[in-house]
Amino acid sequence: MTIQATARLERATRVRAEDFLCAFDAGGAFPDARPGQFVHVRTPADLTLRRPFSVAAVTGRGRFELLVRKRGEGTAALLSLPEGAEVSVLGPSGNGFGLPEPGERAVLVAGGIGVAGLRHLSRTLARDGRRQVVLVGAPTATALLDGVLPGPTTDGAVRVEVATDDGSRGLRGTVCDLVGRALEETDAPARVYCCGPQAMLRSAAGIALAAGARCEALVEEVMACGIGACRGCVVRTRTGYRAACADGPVFDAAELVFDGEERA
Ligand SMILES: Cc1cc2nc3c(=O)[nH]c(=O)nc-3n(C[C@H](O)[C@H](O)[C@H](O)COP(=O)(O)OP(=O)(O)OC[C@H]3O[C@@H](n4cnc5c(N)ncnc54)[C@H](O)[C@@H]3O)c2cc1C
Ligand code: FES
Asked: Pick from 163, 97, 94, 171: which is nearest to 130 by CA?
């Protein structure tokens, strides 16, 4: 159920450079978001449109976190708010990720700020004692968002691998170079969850699907209404155009037609 509520900013913690983890309390009536769902926030700037952000964690009844990267006017205004300020939020919106079935390995693939879209999922899997392989990519070691996703555990339930374009941490290459390797490790069925730039989604999804894995991709389309009314956020799928806000933002990657790609 999506509702409109007033949320109080409890604190904003800098994770790195322009990225902040913002904790909100929207009150006990605000429904818990599922992993992959988002909230649509009216920023304090004088802007007509709300701005969408993945729910990065649910920390209590009506309490949630957003990982916000400062980009333009809306995010700058949001991040300039003092603690205790109130904003209007619409949510939780969208469909969210499907959880892995028993016996399925979860492979999470995050590019850059894409860790925001996978954080709630990763924490949920960790809480439920599910095994997960977390693959994270960034241009350089300093661009990695350390501490946003759960770290590796000694029992191997959470394994983390990193790739950087310049090789300053982990594998030299892209996060997609890690996907094939992770899938080849065992014959156990895997479900791959991706969030990041479109080129990364396309590549990671291609590798996952070629390996026979199920794959879900969270697409970050620019949104206007956020409720399926304006058709401003449509994505192409094998069965026609779908609204990312109402039919997504998580799609079965096998159904998506990425830019420049033709599918029968
Ligand atoms: C489902 C969904 C989940 C998202 N989750 C997060 C998140 O967890 N953390 C986060 O920091 N950002 C997230 N985004 C992106 C976020 O919505 C944009 O960064 C934000 O709207 C930019 O607003 P602005 O006013 O600061 O920038 P604007 O001035 O509107 O734009 C500045 C730059 O951001 C780009 N931009 C604007 N809107 C989007 C958008 N919706 N997606 C991608 N790029 C955009 C513009 O092309 C421009 O280059 C998400 C987007 C979607 C659709
Ligand atoms: S933003 Fe209006 S239909 Fe999705």
From this structure: 97
Model pLDDT, residue 262: 65
Distance 52 CA to ligand 1 centre (A): 7
Q: Report whether pLDDT(260) > 80.
A: no
Mutate to test the pocket of ligand 1, among 64, 71, 219 (most ligand atoms within 8 A of CB): 71
Q: What mean pLDDT is predicted for residues 91-102?
A: 95
Query: Closest ligand 2 atom to the C-alpha of 230?
Result: 2
53 CB within 6 A, ligand 1: yes
The finding on whether 37 has its CB within 6 A of some atom of ligand 1 is: no
Q: Distance, CA 229 to ligand 2 centroid (Å)?
A: 6
Closest by CA position to 9, among listed 78, 112, 104: 78
**Ligand 1 close to Cβ of residue 222 (< 6 A):** yes
Confidence at 84, pLDDT banded by 50, 70, 90: very high
Give counts: helices (H), strands (E), the chain.
4, 16
pLDDT, tens digit, for every residue of 164-212?
A: 999 999 999 999 999 999 999 887 899 999 999 999 999 999 999 999 9
| pTM, two decimal places | 0.95
| Peptide bond preceding 249 in cis form (omega within 30 of 0) | yes
Q: Are 223 and 248 in contact (CB under 8 A)?
A: no
**189 phi, psi to nearest 5 deg:** -60, 145
